[in-house]
């Protein structure tokens, strides 16, 4: 993964960064939000893209 396309996904429950992903920033302007499993909360929560 190239560094300019790398994004961090933060759990909305515990505010910890659990996942890294990539996206095309030229095509997708809004922030990404996915439901992922948080190992700290031990459940599926929404993960939002951070800066």
Quaternary organisation: single chain
| Dominant shape | elongated
Q: Which strand-content bin applies to the residues? A: over 45%
Give the number of DSSP strands. 4
Number of helices: 0
Largest sheet: 4 strands, antiparallel
CATH superfamily heading = Ribosomal protein L33
Structure class = mainly beta
| CATH architecture call | Single Sheet
Q: Mean pLDDT, nearest integer?
A: 93
H/E order of the elements?
EEEE
CATH topology: Rubrerythrin, domain 2
User: Could you give the order of strands across the largest sheet?
Assistant: 2-1-4-3
| Helix content, binned percent | under 10%
Counting structural domains, the number is 1
Contiguous low-pLDDT stretches (5 residues minimum) are: none
Distance between the termini: 17 Å
CATH class: Mainly Beta
The radius of gyration over CA amounts to: 11 Å
